[in-house]
Amino acid sequence: MASQGRRGVSDRRNPKNEGILSRVSNSISQSPILFQGRQAASDAAVVAKKLFKSTGKAAWIAGTTFLILVVPLIIEMDREQQMNELEMQQASLLGTPAQK
């Protein structure tokens, strides 16, 4: 009979038979502020993913454009400089004045 009395007291204090910690945890997890925070974090993650994807595409476009347009120009300018140096060497060996 003593055990029945104890159970009755326990049931009166906590009708759903939940602990205080679980009730607080449930009320926090169902908080509208927490929901808005999670939604904002989710939205931020989506925006970041799109930003990284578009940045990658832009980097690819810039890199391939550089390789196609700028690298051949640099190579040609280097060849021209080497030809000018070679002409200046030949002119100095032959004794003719170097042309500028």
TrEMBL record:
<dbReference type="InterPro" id="IPR005683">
    <property type="entry name" value="Tom22"/>
</dbReference>
<dbReference type="GO" id="GO:0005741">
    <property type="term" value="C:mitochondrial outer membrane"/>
</dbReference>
<protein>
    <recommendedName>
        <fullName>Mitochondrial import receptor subunit TOM9-2</fullName>
    </recommendedName>
</protein>
<keyword id="KW-0472">Membrane</keyword>
<dbReference type="InterPro" id="IPR017411">
    <property type="entry name" value="Tom22_pln"/>
</dbReference>
<comment type="similarity">
    <text>Belongs to the Tom22 family.</text>
</comment>
<keyword id="KW-0813">Transport</keyword>
<feature type="region of interest" description="Disordered">
    <location>
        <begin position="1"/>
        <end position="23"/>
    </location>
</feature>
<keyword id="KW-0812">Transmembrane</keyword>
<keyword id="KW-1133">Transmembrane helix</keyword>
<keyword id="KW-0811">Translocation</keyword>
<keyword id="KW-1000">Mitochondrion outer membrane</keyword>
<keyword id="KW-0675">Receptor</keyword>
<keyword id="KW-0653">Protein transport</keyword>
<keyword id="KW-0496">Mitochondrion</keyword>
<feature type="transmembrane region" description="Helical">
    <location>
        <begin position="58"/>
        <end position="75"/>
    </location>
</feature>
<dbReference type="GO" id="GO:0006886">
    <property type="term" value="P:intracellular protein transport"/>
</dbReference>
<dbReference type="Pfam" id="PF04281">
    <property type="entry name" value="Tom22"/>
</dbReference>
